[in-house]
Amino acid sequence: MEDLANKIIPLVQLLIPGFVVTTIFYWLSESPKPGQFERTIQALIGTGVISLIVSGIEWLLRYVGGHGVVWGTWSTSIESAWAIGLAILIGFGLAFAANHDSFYQVARKLGFTSRASYKEWIYAFRKFPGRAVVLNFLDGRRLFGYPLVWPTDPKEGHFLMQFPAWIADNDYVESPGVEFLLVCNADVYFVEILNSPEEST
Fold first, then answer.
1. Domain layout of the chain by residue ranges
2. Is this prediction's pTM over 0.70?
3. How far apart are CA 122 and CA 43, in angstroms?
4. CA dihedral (20, 24, 26, 31) positive or negative
């Protein structure tokens, strides 16, 4: 048992930077979390990339140190600090890129894909921020408002609608004193995204 622990612990320590990257990424992005095996593979890839970068940094610092500018001695603790620091930066960077569709936007312009970095449902709301929408319910009711929060999944979650008004016979029926309304997504059949005020004039 001790022999097995002695083999597993160094492996886990080796994979920590990759797990830091994937943990931060999946915490902050809208990407669905894969299974444990796939996340382990992603951690292995992340650890490999970070190891290459740290090796390059070590070579650069040793080169600079060999030419007269010495900041200190390279050690395993310094190497680990660089690896964890890079893992945190890469995790935040990948989450930012995924949430802003950065990589896929470039790939779409180059003709490599037609996909976005998140589902069509989320893409539709992010593509038209600040616009009013009309929620069409399964029972035929319609609700006008501004979505401050929307579900990340088209089958579950809730809409937080600001300035809600029910639409009945093409008239807007406001609810005095109600500024926000929380709507269950399971009750919504489809969503209409309205023109912005500038487009309507």
1. 2-109, 120-200
2. no
3. 26
4. negative
